[in-house]
Amino acid sequence: MFVLVEHYVSDVHTFWSAVRHAFRALPPFLTLHHCIPTRDGTHAVCVWEAEGIRDVKGFIESYVGHASRNLYFPVENATGSSLPSGVPLPAEEG
Question: DSSP readout, 38-76?
Answer without folding.
Answer: -TTSSEEEEEEE-S-HHHHHHHHHHHHTTTEEEEEEEES
